[in-house]
Specification:
This protein is an alpha/beta fold. Among the domains are: 129 residues, START domain (Alpha-D-Glucose-1,6-Bisphosphate, Chain A, domain 4, 2-Layer Sandwich); 74 residues, Luciferase, Domain 3 (Luciferase, domain 3), CATH 2.30.38; 96 residues, ANL, C-terminal domain (GMP Synthetase, Chain A, domain 3, 2-Layer Sandwich), CATH 3.30.300. Helices cover 30% and strands 27% of the residues. The protein has an eight-stranded mixed sheet with strand order 10-9-19-18-20-21-22-23, with helices on both faces. Strands 1-7-6-5-4-3-2 form a seven-stranded antiparallel sheet. Strands 15-14-13-11-12-16-17 form a seven-stranded mixed sheet. Strand 31 and strand 32 form a beta hairpin. Helix 6 packs antiparallel against helix 7 and helix 8 crosses helix 9. The radius of gyration is 27 Å and the shape is elongated. The two termini are 46 Å apart.
Length: 678
């Protein structure tokens, strides 16, 4: 074939292993694992769940004619590419030898189909070079009528809505009509349908849907006697338990906003938030009381858990029996704090669910079912834990809430309660995998059908280890406090492409845009924008992120592949320019995660007098493992570009993490105890 591009441009792209899964269908992943003299060693994942995923090692060598050869080490299959300049064109001669041995699906293709596949890949290569505006993927958002039909079908098929006896139907729909599609409406509707079903199990016992509904109504009435009402805001500093949920639901019924304070914040940071939001009332767990002890005495405080001398508890307020209060025109909002990984946490107003579409969106990618048991160790003050709780009411799920996460205790709860869905953040996935195999084997986790992770990227190594250990039940959700969800990777996605963030759920649009806010080509890195009906309602006292055509800027960089799967390159503010080259920390983190000596790793950019910026790697070694800085640098030098080699290697006993498990990279640079290492 002839391409209107200079040979050196094509050659420069074809030598990059990351190009192939972006533009060639059937290639799930391709990474460099070693250098071999003038050649390279690659690891390639080929196939689908249906046809089978095969991992092949291949060698990549430039030839003396300015072309290149890719040879499969295991099978001897060979692809040869020759490039010759012909005036303003490049003539490509591509020869395939024994490629049917690479994968059974390839063996079934005719020569004509192989040629068609090759031409399609190089057509996308041209689009990448020319900057074609193709990086937009939509799931139902562009066709409202069709999306409504899909929402209805999803809700009926799952059983969220089904034919009911008239009395029960009136009670269920009446709860939603009065309180809305929020936590209050969810518990009221579930209480109308299945009042005696267990709603919440925590360390103190269990409560039915009727008890949750009635107790939260009494708490709302008591709040009204305290002078709280529509337009007011209270702070909630608590861990996962039923009292925390009752406080959120009660405030919502009264029209009071709730600021969900992160239990991992410092006392000073909490003081700043209380002052910024002008809070006069706090609901606090007893063990978190020291974080607010020194606040102004005029701030009223109520315990959400155990009683203590001089403190009124939510149980005390509920016991007052004030069940009557004026229902507000506007239901109270939940204000979630952003993670604060790169600065001060901001309060983000979470919108109420937009009817059944919110439920249908998540169910379109995660196969949760009605009347099952859901374990939520992810913090409820975090968007992901909160979203799962809201979804649980529509599914009438029994929710098990541990106040703190412990990996072995998590497995114990799964076995004890026959949990079918587990809601986690990535560090919890890693902690479970770090348990000795003998410990994991003590607990029967066969009831698990869904393990849904969100909050930070999962490394490809962690994904494959978990799938191999527990089966194809892992779902990786990419989103943020501001956009809710953006994409969800199913086990099928992750088996083929372990680092993918997945595809958008129903009613969601994702675009990768350039600096002029125009779509980039498939495979090109740009800024990720998301549009759905659950975009947040803005920050409190802060300007919102930028928008483009109804899509919200996530602040992340990434790309879409030919299948519509999204991949995250990293935060825009994490990318560094070293010696004129754009370098992302995440590929270095992914590569180092393969080393068995490394338990955790984070890579950040730091100033450099010579190159402008350089990478520094912060590593937690596994107990008893031997690893030194030169070994780390040599390993990366063979896998990535020279600009990706971290100049600084710092070994730490642990990485600084927030309560949701995110690494707080802003705290890492202070760990450099020595001058930069050459």
């Amino acid at each position: 074939m002839d391409l209107p591009v200079a040979p050196e441009v094509i050659r420069g792209l074809l030598i990059d292993p990351q190009l192939y899964p972006r533009i060639f269908a059937g290639v799930g992943a391709c990474e460099q694992v070693d250098t071999l003299g003038a050649g390279l060693s690659w690891l390639i994942r080929i196939g689908t769940i249906t046809s089978g995923v095969h991992t092949r090692r291949a060698t990549f060598h430039p030839d003396r004619h300015g072309g290149m050869q890719l040879r499969c080490t295991e099978t001897g299959a060979l692809v040869s590419v020759r490039l010759r300049r012909r005036e303003e064109l490049t003539r490509l001669n591509i020869s395939f030898f024994g490629v049917g041995r690479i994968h059974p699906a390839v063996a079934a293709l005719s020569n004509a189909e192989v040629i068609e596949w090759t031409e399609a890949g190089f057509a996308r290569l041209l689009e990448l070079i020319s900057g074609a505006q193709t990086s937009v993927v939509v799931n139902g958002e562009d066709r409202p009528l069709r999306r409504r039909a899909q929402v209805a079908g999803q809700i009926v098929a799952t059983g969220v809505v089904r034919p009911l006896r008239p009395v029960r139907a009136v009670k269920q729909i009446g709860g939603l009509a009065r309180w809305g599609f929020n936590l209050a409406g969810g518990y009221a509707a579930a209480a109308g349908y299945a009042p005696d079903r267990i709603a919440v199990i925590d360390g103190h016992g269990s409560r039915t849907f009727r008890e949750m509904h009635e107790r939260s109504r009494a708490l709302a009435g008591a709040m009204a006697t305290l002078g709280l009402g529509p337009g007011d805001a209270v702070g909630l500093l608590a861990r996962n338990h039923a009292g925390m949920i009752e406080t959120m639901v009660a405030a919502g019924k009264l029209g009071v906003d709730v600021i969900l304070l992160n239990a991992g914040l410092s006392a000073r940071r909490i003081e700043d938030i209380v002052q910024r939001h002008r809070l006069t009332t706090l609901f606090v767990d007893g063990d978190l009381e020291p974080l607010v002890d020194y606040l102004h005495a005029d701030i009223h405080r109520y315990r959400t858990d155990s009683p203590a001398h001089g403190h009124t508890t939510t149980d005390d307020l509920i016991a007052q029996g004030h069940n009557r209060f004026r229902a507000p025109a506007q239901k109270g909002r939940l204000i979630v704090l952003t993670s604060g990984t790169s600065g001060t946490p901001k309060g983000a107003r979470r919108p109420h669910a937009r009817g059944f579409a919110t439920i249908a969106a998540l169910l379109s990618r995660i196969p949760l079912r009605m009347n099952e048991t859901m374990l939520i160790p992810a913090p409820l003050f975090h968007t992901w834990g909160l979203a799962a709780l809201q979804l649980s009411t529509a599914l009438r799920a029994t929710v098990v809430l541990p106040e703190r996460f412990d990996a072995e205790d998590c497995l114990r709860l799964i076995a004890e309660h026959r949990v079918s869905s587990l809601i986690v953040v990535p560090t919890m996935v890693q902690r479970i995998l770090d348990l000795p195999v003998a410990v994991r084997a003590r607990y029967d986790t066969s009831s698990l059908r869904v393990v849904a992770s969100c909050g930070a990227p999962l490394t490809g190594t962690t994904v494959l280890r978990f799938l191999d250990a527990f089966g194809d039940i892992l779902y990786n959700t990419y989103g943020s406090t501001e956009v809710s969800w953006a994409t969800i990777a199913t086990p099928e996605d992750l088996r083929v492409s372990p680092t993918t963030a997945g595809r958008p759920p129903l009613g969601t649009r994702v675009a990768v845009l350039d600096r002029e806010r125009k779509p980039v080509a498939i495979g090109a890195i740009g800024r990720i924008y998301v549009g759905n009906h659950m975009l947040f309602d803005g920050y409190v006292n802060c300007p919102p992120p930028e928008e483009a055509g109804g899509l919200l800027d996530t602040g992340d960089l990434g790309y879409l592949d030919i299948t519509g799967r999204l991949f995250i390159a990293g935060r825009d503010d994490e990318m560094i320019i070293s010696g004129g080259e754009n370098v992302f920390p995440r590929p270095v983190e992914e590569a180092l995660a393969h080393l068995p000596q490394i338990s955790e790793v984070a890579v950040v950019g730091v100033p450099d007098h010579e190159f402008g910026q350089r990478l520094a790697a912060y590593i937690v070694k596994r107990e008893g493992s031997g690893l030194d800085p030169d070994m780390v640098r040599t390993y990366i030098r063979h896998r990535l570009s020279r600009f990706s080699v971290p100049r600084d290697i710092v070994f730490l006993p642990a990485l600084p993490r927030g309560e949701t498990g995110k690494v707080l990279k802003r705290l890492l640079t202070g760990a450099l105890a020595e001058p930069p290492t050459a």
